[in-house]
């Protein structure tokens, strides 16, 4: 357009000069036609530009929507991944009391009676000199070796009565009878309980699905305590032979894994071992009853190490006074009951003194008292269960989270 204007202004001449070409009708027609063509092209270009902008805007919006949807989906997926992880962690904390139990853990001093407590007797709401217990966290039940009733009783949480799951047919040596059973453990993988039938010098396996289905596993062993490791190997403390024996599925003969060198107080000897506990490293903790000590035998060790011995704090006692039961948490704290001191003590690694955690020095029947405590156990929440044999009851001490 600028070049045309320049040509017009430059094309001014005298009157007698040759006529200007643009002054003719055909010239104006050609110029108007060119203008219309250019205008049409411009309109077309603008239309295409508007259409392109519209399409581009739509695409951007669709991409933004897609991105937003993707973000929502990704966030949802992340939540779905996080929630199971949180549940798994929580489950692990519940399943493993060692996560929440340590040297500073305390328990409420007033216990709850969860089995027995209605006097000594053979009714279903009574116990008679109970000894060993086993906690089943899956259904919140307790299996109790009801020693002088010659039976194993299952007690559901909150129940008034127990249920006889083995024995209960009088004292005897028949397959459906027991004779002063001293301990019981749960074999979850096979849905059985395994019983230390001490008076009959045998180990019995009894089905939880059919109480009539019982099998003698081992004979001629004066068992006092049972334990099972992660491989489902069975450990038995042999009171008479002063040793601990391990049995694996299919074994025809047990292997001595602690003691077995006659009765004595040397580090390779035991003297009437009572309770045993096996940790995740397959170390065995033994309440060495007549030697007034707790011994630890590491896997494949030939000698043990004393891990609880010496004087009790504030007790003025020079010995453990016959340790009855022992359990261990994940950091190696040892919890022990003994026959003459009516309390449960905790022995931290490397210490020579035990600290009372529940019970008092004198026997009693109040909620904060014990009388000749025997077996011990933790549940998933870290609550402490004590066989209060002198009161014919099972006491539950709630973990104190305050």
UniProtKB/TrEMBL annotation:
Each NHL repeat, start to end: 120-158, 369-400
Keyword Repeat annotated: yes
GO biological process terms on file: proteasome-mediated ubiquitin-dependent protein catabolic process; protein polyubiquitination
Key words of the record: Membrane, Repeat, Transmembrane, Transmembrane helix
SUPFAM superfamilies: YWTD domain (SSF63825)
Xref: CDD domains: NHL
Entry-linked Gene3D superfamilies: 2.40.10.500, TolB, C-terminal domain
Pfam families found in the cross-reference section: NHL
Coiled coil: none
Gene Ontology MF terms in the entry: ubiquitin protein ligase activity; zinc ion binding
Entry-linked InterPro entries: 6-blade_b-propeller_TolB-like, NHL_repeat, TRIM-NHL_E3_ligases
Chain ranges passing through the membrane: 37-56
PANTHER family for this protein: E3 UBIQUITIN-PROTEIN LIGASE NHLRC1-RELATED (PTHR24104), PROTEIN LIN-41 (PTHR24104:SF25)
Annotated protein name in UniProt: NHL repeat containing protein
């Amino acid at each position: 357009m600028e070049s045309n204007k320049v040509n017009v202004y430059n094309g001014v001449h005298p009157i007698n000069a040759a006529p200007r070409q643009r002054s003719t009708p055909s010239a104006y027609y050609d110029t108007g036609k060119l203008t219309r063509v250019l205008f049409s092209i411009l309109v077309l270009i603008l239309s295409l530009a508007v259409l392109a902008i519209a399409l581009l805007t739509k695409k951007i919006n669709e991409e933004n929507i897609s991105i937003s949807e993707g973000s929502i989906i990704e966030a949802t997926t992340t939540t779905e991944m996080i929630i199971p992880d949180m549940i798994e962690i929580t489950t692990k904390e519940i399943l493993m009391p060692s996560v929440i139990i340590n040297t500073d853990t305390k328990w409420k001093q007033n216990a709850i009676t969860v089995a027995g407590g209605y006097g000594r007797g053979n009714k279903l709401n009574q116990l008679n000199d109970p000894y060993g217990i086993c906690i089943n966290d899956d259904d919140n039940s307790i299996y109790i070796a009801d020693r002088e009733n010659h039976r194993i009783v299952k007690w559901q949480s909150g129940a008034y009565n127990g249920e006889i799951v083995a024995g209960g047919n009088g004292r005897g040596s028949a397959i459906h009878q027991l004779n002063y059973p001293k301990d019981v453990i749960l074999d979850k993988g096979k849905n059985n309980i395994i019983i230390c039938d001490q008076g009959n010098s045998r180990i019995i396996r009894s089905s939880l699905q059919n109480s009539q289905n019982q099998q003698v596993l081992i004979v001629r062993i004066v068992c006092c305590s049972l334990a099972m490791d992660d491989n489902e190997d069975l450990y038995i403390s042999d009171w008479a032979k002063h040793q601990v024996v391990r049995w694996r599925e299919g074994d025809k003969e047990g292997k001595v894994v602690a003691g077995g060198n006659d009765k004595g107080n040397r580090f390779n000897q035991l003297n009437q071992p009572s309770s045993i506990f096996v940790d995740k490293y397959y170390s065995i903790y033994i309440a060495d009853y007549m030697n007034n000590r707790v011994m630890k035998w590491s896997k494949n060790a030939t000698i043990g190490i004393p891990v609880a011995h010496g004087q009790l704090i504030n007790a003025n006692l020079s010995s453990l006074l016959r340790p009855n039961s022992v359990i261990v948490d994940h950091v190696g704290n040892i919890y022990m009951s003994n026959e003459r001191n009516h309390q449960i003590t905790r022995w931290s690694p490397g210490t020579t003194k035990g600290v009372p955690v529940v019970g008092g020095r004198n026997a009693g029947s109040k909620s904060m008292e014990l009388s000749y405590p025997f077996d011990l156990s933790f549940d998933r929440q870290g609550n402490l269960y004590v066989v209060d044999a002198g009161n014919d009851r099972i006491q539950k001490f709630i973990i104190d989270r305050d």
